[in-house]
Amino acid sequence: MRLIVPLPGNEAFAERLATAGGFELGRLETRRFPDGESYVRHLSDMAGRTVDLVCSLARPDPGFLSLLFAADAARDLGAAQVSLVAPYLAYMRQDRRFKPGEAVTSRPFARLLSGAFDRLITVDPHLHRYPDLAALYAIPTATLHAAPVLADWIAAEVPDALIIGPDEESEQWVAAVAARVGAPHIVLRKIRRGDREVEIVLPDLGAWTGRRPVLIDDIASSGRTLIEAARRLQAQGLKPPVCVVVHAVFADNAFEELARISDQVVSTDSVPHPSNAISLAPLLASALREPDAAGPARRRRRSESGAVTTEGPG
């Protein structure tokens, strides 16, 4: 039986994952020595086990060494395989050198995780210039897609929805969500002026004023895209939108600002947040139940709407 071991702050998600998959839930003891160094101790038997460390990597820096130490200790204690279940994968933003001298942090971060784990399972990583995670990671990776679970929540909770994507990059998965919901969709145009400044260009939406707008996005970090889109929608006479996001990072006061101008803001539980309303545990449990026997070179792809892309090193 798989052993699911949560890093601090991930206990609730790990419990849901273990329950959904019928896996054993392990325990990890962590604390700080007086000099600030990390102490890590596994409280479950690792010998011969498939061990999955569960750690959402939003705001990763403070606990990252503990994660690496936990992986190394599991292997040293005899684990047959040590995987990382990271519902949110960090350090995907800096995928090239934008200014002279910058660190391209996505690459060393991937090397560190590849050296510590046998496999990585994540949900909707924020890919820009990388075609897939296999371009970065030297271990097998399983990329899961949250579009179906977002669509099922919208279908159950938001009647007469109009599905809205914030930019052209979202066209494919917004269309997949809308098709599963059985609702119309549109895609806005985003012009980014900086890390915290965007301009949203809308078509004429007068034909949709009777619909409930549902803004969906893969990640809400600064929240500026969703905030600006929500304002522009209401300026055209639409109802306050329901905002549905995969990864609720919500830096600073972004969530409070978005909530003030929205009917509702909900997210998956990939990042612990008060907006969490959509569980990813069944999706991840299903992926973990898949056999890993094909090894590092395995590559499989499924349909865009459904979900699992398993990649190995290229």
Automatic annotation (TrEMBL):
<dbReference type="InterPro" id="IPR029099">
    <property type="entry name" value="Pribosyltran_N"/>
</dbReference>
<feature type="domain" description="Ribose-phosphate pyrophosphokinase N-terminal">
    <location>
        <begin position="5"/>
        <end position="114"/>
    </location>
</feature>
<dbReference type="GO" id="GO:0004749">
    <property type="term" value="F:ribose phosphate diphosphokinase activity"/>
</dbReference>
<keyword id="KW-0808">Transferase</keyword>
<dbReference type="InterPro" id="IPR029057">
    <property type="entry name" value="PRTase-like"/>
</dbReference>
<dbReference type="InterPro" id="IPR005946">
    <property type="entry name" value="Rib-P_diPkinase"/>
</dbReference>
<dbReference type="GO" id="GO:0005737">
    <property type="term" value="C:cytoplasm"/>
</dbReference>
<keyword id="KW-0418">Kinase</keyword>
<dbReference type="GO" id="GO:0002189">
    <property type="term" value="C:ribose phosphate diphosphokinase complex"/>
</dbReference>
<comment type="similarity">
    <text>Belongs to the ribose-phosphate pyrophosphokinase family.</text>
</comment>
<dbReference type="GO" id="GO:0006164">
    <property type="term" value="P:purine nucleotide biosynthetic process"/>
</dbReference>
<feature type="region of interest" description="Disordered">
    <location>
        <begin position="289"/>
        <end position="314"/>
    </location>
</feature>
<dbReference type="GO" id="GO:0006015">
    <property type="term" value="P:5-phosphoribose 1-diphosphate biosynthetic process"/>
</dbReference>
<dbReference type="Pfam" id="PF00156">
    <property type="entry name" value="Pribosyltran"/>
</dbReference>
<keyword id="KW-0545">Nucleotide biosynthesis</keyword>
<dbReference type="GO" id="GO:0016301">
    <property type="term" value="F:kinase activity"/>
</dbReference>
<dbReference type="InterPro" id="IPR000836">
    <property type="entry name" value="PRTase_dom"/>
</dbReference>
<dbReference type="GO" id="GO:0000287">
    <property type="term" value="F:magnesium ion binding"/>
</dbReference>
<feature type="domain" description="Phosphoribosyltransferase">
    <location>
        <begin position="162"/>
        <end position="270"/>
    </location>
</feature>
<dbReference type="Pfam" id="PF13793">
    <property type="entry name" value="Pribosyltran_N"/>
</dbReference>
<protein>
    <submittedName>
        <fullName>Ribose-phosphate pyrophosphokinase 2</fullName>
    </submittedName>
</protein>
